[in-house]
Specification:
Elements (H helix, E strand, L loop, with lengths): L4 E7 L3 E2 L9 H15 L10 E5 L11 H8 L9 E3 L5 H15 L4 E9 L5 E2 L15 E2 L19 H12 L3 H20 L27 H5 L23 E10 L11 E10 L9 H12 L6 E6 L4 H11 L12 H4 L6 H16 L3 E8 L3 E9 L2
Parallel strand pairs: 3-4, 3-5, 10-11
Antiparallel strand pairs: 1-8, 1-9, 2-8, 5-8, 6-7, 9-12, 11-12
Helix pairs in contact: 1-2, 3-10
Length: 394
Protein backbone atom coordinates (compact mmCIF):
# COMPACT_ATOMS: atom_id res chain seq x y z
CA UNK A 1 0.00 0.00 0.00
CA UNK A 2 1.12 3.52 -0.77
CA UNK A 3 0.86 6.46 1.64
CA UNK A 4 -1.57 9.36 1.33
CA UNK A 5 -0.20 12.91 1.46
CA UNK A 6 -1.66 16.39 1.77
CA UNK A 7 -0.57 18.53 -1.19
CA UNK A 8 -2.65 21.67 -0.64
CA UNK A 9 -5.35 23.11 1.62
CA UNK A 10 -7.56 26.18 1.40
CA UNK A 11 -10.66 27.57 3.03
CA UNK A 12 -12.90 30.58 2.79
CA UNK A 13 -13.12 33.09 5.62
CA UNK A 14 -15.82 31.86 7.98
CA UNK A 15 -18.85 34.14 8.27
CA UNK A 16 -21.17 34.71 11.19
CA UNK A 17 -24.76 33.47 11.16
CA UNK A 18 -26.66 36.03 9.12
CA UNK A 19 -23.40 37.81 8.34
CA UNK A 20 -21.26 38.51 5.29
CA UNK A 21 -21.75 35.08 3.66
CA UNK A 22 -25.49 34.92 4.29
CA UNK A 23 -26.26 35.68 0.65
CA UNK A 24 -24.02 32.94 -0.74
CA UNK A 25 -25.46 29.51 -1.51
CA UNK A 26 -23.60 26.54 -0.01
CA UNK A 27 -23.01 24.97 -3.42
CA UNK A 28 -21.40 28.23 -4.54
CA UNK A 29 -19.24 28.27 -1.40
CA UNK A 30 -18.15 24.73 -2.25
CA UNK A 31 -17.21 25.85 -5.74
CA UNK A 32 -15.12 28.70 -4.31
CA UNK A 33 -13.10 26.26 -2.19
CA UNK A 34 -12.62 23.88 -5.11
CA UNK A 35 -11.47 26.69 -7.39
CA UNK A 36 -9.19 27.86 -4.58
CA UNK A 37 -7.41 24.50 -4.53
CA UNK A 38 -6.99 24.55 -8.30
CA UNK A 39 -5.46 28.04 -8.12
CA UNK A 40 -2.85 26.76 -5.64
CA UNK A 41 -1.89 23.82 -7.85
CA UNK A 42 -1.62 25.26 -11.39
CA UNK A 43 0.06 22.13 -12.76
CA UNK A 44 -2.89 19.98 -11.72
CA UNK A 45 -4.99 18.58 -14.53
CA UNK A 46 -8.49 18.54 -13.00
CA UNK A 47 -9.44 15.54 -15.11
CA UNK A 48 -6.82 13.52 -13.22
CA UNK A 49 -8.84 13.69 -10.00
CA UNK A 50 -9.94 10.18 -9.19
CA UNK A 51 -12.79 11.34 -6.96
CA UNK A 52 -14.09 14.21 -4.87
CA UNK A 53 -15.17 13.48 -1.28
CA UNK A 54 -17.16 16.38 0.15
CA UNK A 55 -18.61 16.91 3.62
CA UNK A 56 -21.88 18.59 4.57
CA UNK A 57 -23.93 18.12 7.72
CA UNK A 58 -27.27 19.64 6.76
CA UNK A 59 -28.27 18.73 3.22
CA UNK A 60 -31.83 19.91 3.79
CA UNK A 61 -31.88 22.93 1.48
CA UNK A 62 -29.65 24.30 -1.28
CA UNK A 63 -27.02 21.76 -0.22
CA UNK A 64 -29.21 18.79 -1.09
CA UNK A 65 -28.73 16.40 -4.03
CA UNK A 66 -25.02 15.71 -3.47
CA UNK A 67 -23.59 19.18 -2.89
CA UNK A 68 -20.08 17.82 -3.59
CA UNK A 69 -21.03 17.05 -7.17
CA UNK A 70 -22.80 20.41 -7.47
CA UNK A 71 -19.64 22.16 -6.29
CA UNK A 72 -17.55 20.30 -8.86
CA UNK A 73 -19.86 21.31 -11.69
CA UNK A 74 -20.19 24.93 -10.54
CA UNK A 75 -16.40 25.18 -10.18
CA UNK A 76 -16.05 24.32 -13.87
CA UNK A 77 -14.28 20.99 -13.46
CA UNK A 78 -14.70 18.45 -16.26
CA UNK A 79 -18.00 16.61 -16.05
CA UNK A 80 -15.96 13.39 -15.91
CA UNK A 81 -14.83 14.21 -12.34
CA UNK A 82 -17.05 12.24 -9.93
CA UNK A 83 -18.04 13.38 -6.44
CA UNK A 84 -19.86 12.17 -3.37
CA UNK A 85 -21.12 13.91 -0.25
CA UNK A 86 -20.28 12.58 3.21
CA UNK A 87 -22.38 13.29 6.30
CA UNK A 88 -20.85 12.64 9.71
CA UNK A 89 -22.26 15.90 11.07
CA UNK A 90 -19.50 18.13 12.51
CA UNK A 91 -16.84 15.68 11.33
CA UNK A 92 -18.03 15.48 7.73
CA UNK A 93 -15.05 17.09 5.97
CA UNK A 94 -12.50 15.33 8.20
CA UNK A 95 -14.31 12.09 7.43
CA UNK A 96 -14.11 12.98 3.73
CA UNK A 97 -10.34 13.37 4.06
CA UNK A 98 -10.05 10.08 5.94
CA UNK A 99 -12.07 8.27 3.28
CA UNK A 100 -10.04 9.93 0.54
CA UNK A 101 -6.78 8.88 2.19
CA UNK A 102 -7.97 5.27 2.26
CA UNK A 103 -8.82 5.47 -1.45
CA UNK A 104 -5.26 6.60 -2.17
CA UNK A 105 -3.66 4.03 0.10
CA UNK A 106 -5.62 1.23 -1.56
CA UNK A 107 -4.41 2.36 -4.98
CA UNK A 108 -7.88 3.15 -6.33
CA UNK A 109 -6.79 6.72 -7.15
CA UNK A 110 -3.65 8.84 -7.05
CA UNK A 111 -5.46 12.15 -6.48
CA UNK A 112 -8.56 12.86 -4.40
CA UNK A 113 -10.01 16.28 -3.64
CA UNK A 114 -11.70 16.47 -0.23
CA UNK A 115 -13.41 19.21 1.71
CA UNK A 116 -16.73 20.41 3.00
CA UNK A 117 -19.22 23.23 3.22
CA UNK A 118 -21.96 24.54 5.46
CA UNK A 119 -24.26 27.51 5.37
CA UNK A 120 -25.98 27.44 8.73
CA UNK A 121 -27.57 30.78 7.86
CA UNK A 122 -29.30 29.36 4.80
CA UNK A 123 -30.36 26.07 6.41
CA UNK A 124 -34.13 25.90 5.83
CA UNK A 125 -37.04 25.33 8.13
CA UNK A 126 -38.82 22.07 7.41
CA UNK A 127 -42.33 20.79 8.03
CA UNK A 128 -42.97 17.16 8.94
CA UNK A 129 -45.03 15.42 6.30
CA UNK A 130 -48.45 14.53 7.75
CA UNK A 131 -49.53 10.89 7.72
CA UNK A 132 -52.80 11.85 6.05
CA UNK A 133 -54.08 14.69 3.91
CA UNK A 134 -55.47 17.83 5.53
CA UNK A 135 -54.68 17.17 9.21
CA UNK A 136 -56.73 19.22 11.66
CA UNK A 137 -53.86 19.96 14.03
CA UNK A 138 -51.12 22.56 13.63
CA UNK A 139 -47.73 21.68 12.16
CA UNK A 140 -44.61 23.46 13.44
CA UNK A 141 -41.73 24.43 11.17
CA UNK A 142 -38.41 23.09 12.47
CA UNK A 143 -35.04 24.84 12.00
CA UNK A 144 -32.40 22.62 10.43
CA UNK A 145 -29.46 24.88 11.33
CA UNK A 146 -28.24 22.84 14.29
CA UNK A 147 -29.04 19.94 16.58
CA UNK A 148 -31.79 17.37 16.89
CA UNK A 149 -35.00 17.74 14.92
CA UNK A 150 -37.97 15.48 14.16
CA UNK A 151 -36.69 13.17 16.89
CA UNK A 152 -37.76 9.54 16.90
CA UNK A 153 -39.86 9.03 20.04
CA UNK A 154 -38.08 5.72 20.65
CA UNK A 155 -34.84 7.58 21.40
CA UNK A 156 -34.09 7.76 25.16
CA UNK A 157 -34.61 11.38 26.26
CA UNK A 158 -31.15 11.58 27.85
CA UNK A 159 -29.64 11.03 24.39
CA UNK A 160 -31.55 13.86 22.73
CA UNK A 161 -30.79 16.79 25.01
CA UNK A 162 -29.50 19.92 23.29
CA UNK A 163 -25.81 20.17 22.47
CA UNK A 164 -25.41 22.86 25.11
CA UNK A 165 -27.21 20.87 27.79
CA UNK A 166 -25.02 17.88 26.94
CA UNK A 167 -21.91 19.95 27.52
CA UNK A 168 -23.23 21.27 30.82
CA UNK A 169 -23.18 17.59 31.84
CA UNK A 170 -19.46 17.52 31.00
CA UNK A 171 -18.91 20.63 33.09
CA UNK A 172 -20.50 18.90 36.06
CA UNK A 173 -18.84 15.53 35.52
CA UNK A 174 -15.30 16.92 35.20
CA UNK A 175 -15.71 19.98 37.46
CA UNK A 176 -14.66 22.41 34.72
CA UNK A 177 -15.43 25.88 35.96
CA UNK A 178 -16.96 28.81 34.11
CA UNK A 179 -13.72 30.70 34.76
CA UNK A 180 -11.61 28.09 32.94
CA UNK A 181 -14.02 28.09 30.02
CA UNK A 182 -13.96 31.87 29.68
CA UNK A 183 -10.16 31.93 29.86
CA UNK A 184 -9.98 29.31 27.11
CA UNK A 185 -12.44 31.25 24.95
CA UNK A 186 -10.62 34.57 25.34
CA UNK A 187 -7.37 32.82 24.39
CA UNK A 188 -9.02 31.50 21.22
CA UNK A 189 -10.09 34.98 20.10
CA UNK A 190 -6.75 36.61 20.83
CA UNK A 191 -4.70 33.87 19.18
CA UNK A 192 -6.91 33.97 16.07
CA UNK A 193 -6.56 37.74 15.88
CA UNK A 194 -2.77 37.49 16.27
CA UNK A 195 -2.55 34.79 13.59
CA UNK A 196 -4.49 36.92 11.12
CA UNK A 197 -2.37 39.97 11.94
CA UNK A 198 0.84 37.98 11.47
CA UNK A 199 -0.24 36.77 8.02
CA UNK A 200 -0.56 33.10 8.98
CA UNK A 201 -3.89 32.64 7.23
CA UNK A 202 -3.29 34.83 4.20
CA UNK A 203 -1.60 32.17 2.00
CA UNK A 204 -4.44 29.67 2.20
CA UNK A 205 -7.68 31.56 2.85
CA UNK A 206 -9.45 32.36 -0.43
CA UNK A 207 -11.88 35.22 -0.86
CA UNK A 208 -15.51 34.72 -1.83
CA UNK A 209 -16.40 36.67 -5.00
CA UNK A 210 -18.82 39.51 -4.42
CA UNK A 211 -18.32 39.47 -0.65
CA UNK A 212 -16.24 41.93 1.36
CA UNK A 213 -14.92 39.58 4.00
CA UNK A 214 -11.16 39.57 4.40
CA UNK A 215 -10.95 37.43 7.54
CA UNK A 216 -13.07 35.31 9.86
CA UNK A 217 -16.04 37.36 10.93
CA UNK A 218 -16.41 36.01 14.46
CA UNK A 219 -12.97 36.90 15.82
CA UNK A 220 -13.18 39.37 18.69
CA UNK A 221 -9.82 41.09 19.32
CA UNK A 222 -9.16 42.11 22.88
CA UNK A 223 -11.42 39.47 24.41
CA UNK A 224 -10.83 38.93 28.11
CA UNK A 225 -12.20 36.47 30.65
CA UNK A 226 -13.66 39.43 32.53
CA UNK A 227 -15.69 40.56 29.50
CA UNK A 228 -16.89 37.01 28.85
CA UNK A 229 -17.84 36.59 32.51
CA UNK A 230 -20.58 39.20 32.03
CA UNK A 231 -22.51 36.97 29.62
CA UNK A 232 -25.56 35.03 30.78
CA UNK A 233 -25.48 31.19 30.66
CA UNK A 234 -27.42 29.90 27.66
CA UNK A 235 -28.63 26.46 28.73
CA UNK A 236 -29.05 26.63 32.50
CA UNK A 237 -29.34 29.56 34.89
CA UNK A 238 -26.44 30.67 37.04
CA UNK A 239 -28.42 29.50 40.06
CA UNK A 240 -28.58 26.05 38.47
CA UNK A 241 -24.85 26.09 37.86
CA UNK A 242 -24.95 26.98 34.16
CA UNK A 243 -21.49 27.67 32.72
CA UNK A 244 -21.90 27.72 28.93
CA UNK A 245 -22.52 31.05 27.22
CA UNK A 246 -22.46 32.45 23.71
CA UNK A 247 -18.92 33.58 24.52
CA UNK A 248 -17.38 30.20 25.39
CA UNK A 249 -19.07 28.12 22.69
CA UNK A 250 -18.56 28.10 18.93
CA UNK A 251 -21.01 30.23 16.94
CA UNK A 252 -23.28 29.23 14.07
CA UNK A 253 -21.24 29.91 10.92
CA UNK A 254 -20.97 29.72 7.14
CA UNK A 255 -17.93 28.63 5.11
CA UNK A 256 -16.10 26.00 3.08
CA UNK A 257 -12.73 24.21 3.11
CA UNK A 258 -10.82 21.94 0.73
CA UNK A 259 -7.81 19.61 1.02
CA UNK A 260 -6.02 17.95 -1.90
CA UNK A 261 -4.72 14.46 -1.16
CA UNK A 262 -2.47 12.35 -3.34
CA UNK A 263 -0.04 9.47 -3.46
CA UNK A 264 3.71 9.82 -3.95
CA UNK A 265 3.03 9.23 -7.65
CA UNK A 266 0.61 12.16 -7.93
CA UNK A 267 1.63 14.57 -10.66
CA UNK A 268 0.71 17.98 -9.27
CA UNK A 269 3.99 19.86 -9.63
CA UNK A 270 4.31 20.26 -5.85
CA UNK A 271 6.08 18.43 -3.07
CA UNK A 272 3.78 16.87 -0.46
CA UNK A 273 3.21 18.84 2.73
CA UNK A 274 2.28 16.10 5.20
CA UNK A 275 1.54 12.39 5.34
CA UNK A 276 -1.62 10.88 6.78
CA UNK A 277 0.03 8.77 9.46
CA UNK A 278 -2.96 7.56 11.47
CA UNK A 279 -6.73 7.74 11.69
CA UNK A 280 -9.16 7.13 14.53
CA UNK A 281 -12.91 7.01 14.98
CA UNK A 282 -14.76 6.54 18.26
CA UNK A 283 -18.28 6.63 19.67
CA UNK A 284 -19.78 7.21 23.11
CA UNK A 285 -23.21 7.90 24.60
CA UNK A 286 -24.80 10.65 22.48
CA UNK A 287 -24.96 13.19 25.31
CA UNK A 288 -21.22 12.78 25.96
CA UNK A 289 -20.19 13.53 22.37
CA UNK A 290 -17.84 16.31 23.44
CA UNK A 291 -15.59 13.79 25.18
CA UNK A 292 -15.41 11.34 22.27
CA UNK A 293 -12.17 12.84 20.79
CA UNK A 294 -10.27 11.39 23.75
CA UNK A 295 -10.60 7.84 22.41
CA UNK A 296 -10.53 8.81 18.72
CA UNK A 297 -7.16 10.53 19.12
CA UNK A 298 -5.80 7.63 21.12
CA UNK A 299 -6.70 5.23 18.33
CA UNK A 300 -5.15 7.47 15.67
CA UNK A 301 -1.92 7.73 17.65
CA UNK A 302 -1.77 3.96 18.11
CA UNK A 303 -2.21 3.40 14.38
CA UNK A 304 0.55 5.92 13.68
CA UNK A 305 2.79 4.07 16.12
CA UNK A 306 3.46 7.14 18.29
CA UNK A 307 2.37 8.60 21.63
CA UNK A 308 1.37 12.04 22.88
CA UNK A 309 5.00 12.72 23.77
CA UNK A 310 5.81 12.70 20.03
CA UNK A 311 3.13 15.28 19.16
CA UNK A 312 4.16 18.90 18.68
CA UNK A 313 0.88 20.44 17.46
CA UNK A 314 -2.81 19.78 18.14
CA UNK A 315 -5.84 21.17 16.35
CA UNK A 316 -8.95 20.35 18.37
CA UNK A 317 -12.22 21.76 17.08
CA UNK A 318 -13.60 23.98 19.83
CA UNK A 319 -17.29 23.14 19.71
CA UNK A 320 -17.46 24.26 23.35
CA UNK A 321 -14.70 25.38 25.67
CA UNK A 322 -15.81 22.84 28.26
CA UNK A 323 -15.48 19.83 25.99
CA UNK A 324 -12.15 21.05 24.67
CA UNK A 325 -10.82 21.37 28.23
CA UNK A 326 -12.19 17.94 29.16
CA UNK A 327 -10.30 16.39 26.24
CA UNK A 328 -7.05 18.24 26.99
CA UNK A 329 -7.22 17.23 30.64
CA UNK A 330 -7.70 13.59 29.65
CA UNK A 331 -4.83 13.69 27.14
CA UNK A 332 -2.54 15.40 29.68
CA UNK A 333 -0.91 17.45 26.91
CA UNK A 334 0.70 20.85 27.10
CA UNK A 335 -2.14 23.31 26.36
CA UNK A 336 0.38 25.64 24.73
CA UNK A 337 0.58 23.34 21.66
CA UNK A 338 -3.19 23.37 21.19
CA UNK A 339 -4.95 25.67 18.70
CA UNK A 340 -2.12 28.20 18.70
CA UNK A 341 -3.73 30.07 15.79
CA UNK A 342 -7.14 30.28 17.45
CA UNK A 343 -10.00 27.83 17.33
CA UNK A 344 -13.64 27.46 16.43
CA UNK A 345 -14.87 29.59 19.34
CA UNK A 346 -13.32 32.57 17.55
CA UNK A 347 -13.02 31.42 13.94
CA UNK A 348 -16.43 29.78 13.67
CA UNK A 349 -17.81 26.29 13.17
CA UNK A 350 -19.61 25.79 9.85
CA UNK A 351 -20.27 22.13 10.56
CA UNK A 352 -19.39 20.47 7.27
CA UNK A 353 -16.28 22.63 6.72
CA UNK A 354 -14.61 22.51 10.13
CA UNK A 355 -12.76 19.21 9.68
CA UNK A 356 -11.02 20.51 6.57
CA UNK A 357 -10.18 23.73 8.41
CA UNK A 358 -8.45 22.03 11.32
CA UNK A 359 -6.60 19.67 8.98
CA UNK A 360 -5.37 22.56 6.83
CA UNK A 361 -4.41 24.58 9.90
CA UNK A 362 -2.46 21.64 11.28
CA UNK A 363 -0.52 21.26 8.03
CA UNK A 364 0.38 24.97 8.08
CA UNK A 365 1.42 24.83 11.73
CA UNK A 366 3.70 21.82 11.17
CA UNK A 367 5.32 23.54 8.22
CA UNK A 368 5.83 26.72 10.22
CA UNK A 369 7.22 25.06 13.36
CA UNK A 370 9.06 22.11 11.85
CA UNK A 371 7.45 19.74 14.34
CA UNK A 372 7.20 16.19 13.04
CA UNK A 373 3.75 15.04 14.23
CA UNK A 374 0.42 16.72 14.79
CA UNK A 375 -3.11 15.65 15.67
CA UNK A 376 -6.40 17.01 14.32
CA UNK A 377 -9.50 15.94 16.26
CA UNK A 378 -13.17 16.84 16.24
CA UNK A 379 -16.21 15.92 18.32
CA UNK A 380 -19.45 15.04 16.57
CA UNK A 381 -23.08 15.25 17.67
CA UNK A 382 -24.89 12.01 18.57
CA UNK A 383 -21.79 10.73 20.31
CA UNK A 384 -18.92 10.37 17.85
CA UNK A 385 -15.47 11.77 17.11
CA UNK A 386 -12.70 11.57 14.51
CA UNK A 387 -8.96 12.15 14.67
CA UNK A 388 -6.08 12.21 12.19
CA UNK A 389 -2.33 12.11 12.83
CA UNK A 390 -0.20 14.03 10.33
CA UNK A 391 3.53 13.62 9.78
CA UNK A 392 5.39 16.65 8.45
CA UNK A 393 6.76 15.82 4.98
CA UNK A 394 9.48 18.49 5.00
Amino acid sequence: MTSAFVYAAVRTPFGRFGGALAGVRPDDLAAVAIQGILSRVPALDPSSLGDVMWGCANQAGEDNRNVGRMGVLLAGLPVSVPATTVNRLCGSSLDAAMIGSRVIESGDADLVLTGGVESMTRAPWVLPKPSRAYPAEDLAAVSTALGWRLVNERMPPEWTVSLGAANELLSERFAISRERQDEFAARSHNLADAAWAAGFYAPWVVSVPGVELARDEGVRPGSTPEKLAALTPSFASEAEGGTITAGNASPLSDGASAVLLGSERALVGLDPLARIAGRGVAAVEPQLFGYAPVDAAGRALARAGISWSDVGAIELNEAFAVQSLACLDAWKVDPEIVNTKGGAIAIGHPLGASGGRILGTLVARLRESGERYGVAAICIGVGQALAVVLENAS
